[in-house]
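Researcher: Good morning. I'm working through a list of sequences from a screen, and I'd like to move beyond sequence-only analysis. For each chain I'm collecting a predicted structure so we can compare shapes side by side. This is the next one on the list. No need for commentary yet; just the structure.
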Amino acid sequence: MNTIPASEVKRRGVAALDEAARKGPVHVIKNNRL
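Model: Good morning. Structure tokens for this chain:
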């Protein structure tokens, strides 16, 4: 499973999620915690 911090989504938008989703399931980390 790929992880991506919420701050990255805020910075890059949904494109960050789309890029990570190409590699498989994505887990968004809130407050830099798992």
